[in-house]
Amino acid sequence: DKGNHRHFMLKEIYEQPTVVGQTLSSYIDPLNLRIVLQDLCFDPKTISRVTLIACGTSYYAAMVAKYWIEHYAHIPVDVDIASEFRYRAPVLSQGGLAVFISQSGETADTLAALRHCKQAGQTVAAIVNVPESTMAREADMVFPIHAGPEIGVASTKAFTCQLSVLAALAIGFGVLRKTIDRSLEATLVQALSEVPSRMAEVLHHDEKLRDIAADLANARDVLYLGRGTDYPIALEGALKLKEISYIHAEGYAAGELKHGPIALIDQAVPIVVIAPMGPLFEKTVSNMEEAIARGGKVILMSCKDGLKNHSDMAMASIELPQVHPMATPLLYALPVQLLAYHTAVHKGTDVDQPRNLAKSVTVE
Ligand code: F6R
């Protein structure tokens, strides 16, 4: 049932404040500002390496988690696309933890990689939405994301719920490894617990995003730029746009712009810049200025302070709440989802059933 929404995708975008709240409630204790993890079948103090494996949007969640786990838990992390991992000769560390991220829990390549890692003696964990899925059954340990059924083929709420679980794991591992002290744990848990209400604020920009999308619908190519944990959000924004509006889009790490893609830039290529306030803000802005100097038309997503001196140079801007850097990928996922959604609606494509795509890819 789509409720009063025109598409499942829109309904699922709007569900995010609620479902992310539900997900977080099983991984954090908001009163005492602590992470609560179920009994783990491995000891985060002794794991030598974390290998994160997934496909598509779930892979972008893994990319975000690499930054978090390295930063907060000081564990080396590898991220891999399942279809690449399984046909390489990956060298796995003894005492490694392999984590498989999948909404469906059935994606063939991810499942094959899971079986490979299990056979190779890794501890295997699955972060899934479907609790009775094959991956959930075969993993040593399951971390459910509690997003509820996702009907739209393009993943939305599963992504932010995956990020919520991964954030809790990164903090939880850090606490157990003592790379995070009690006060940092409290700060981070507080930041996560505010995400649902901040997401609800972000959804108020729906109409403005719809207006921007009317322009975007005329583009042939769109670039998305971000740094750090917002680089995977640029990739996710580009994937969403490709999938449902069929407009060619590319996500780039903002610092890579001058190593090639800057050659593409002219007035006809809109550039979505994801630039929350934080340690990387100035760097991203300087990449944005390089693009604007070459005629690039920028759609800038930042917070009030970030937009203060920079919104004039952008063609359009979206003001998001100012939050802790750990919360930015969770929040900035929403405007890129909505931008893709409205662009597709504007073009008249089949949003919930994009051509050539299936919800669950059970062939290799
Ligand atoms: C993108 C999308 C796909 C899936 C991918 C993995 O919107 O939905 O890229 O993310 O097929 O699917 P799961 O997470 O079920 O393994």
TrEMBL record:
EC number: 2.6.1.16
Keyword Transport tagged: no
Subcellular localization(s) per the UniProt record: Cytoplasm
Enzyme superclass (EC): transferase
Organism, as annotated: Iodidimonas muriae
GO molecular function annotation: transaminase activity
UniProt KW Endoplasmic reticulum keyword: no
Subunit structure: Homodimer.
Domain of life: Bacteria
Residues of the full protein shown: 244 to 607 of 607
Domain SIS: 37-179, 212-354
Location, primary (coarse class): cytoplasm
Protein name: Glutamine--fructose-6-phosphate aminotransferase [isomerizing]
Job description of the protein: Catalyzes the first step in hexosamine metabolism, converting fructose-6P into glucosamine-6P using glutamine as a nitrogen source.
Keywords, alphabetical: Aminotransferase, Cytoplasm, Glutamine amidotransferase, Repeat, Transferase
Active site, per annotation: 359 (for fru-6p isomerization activity)
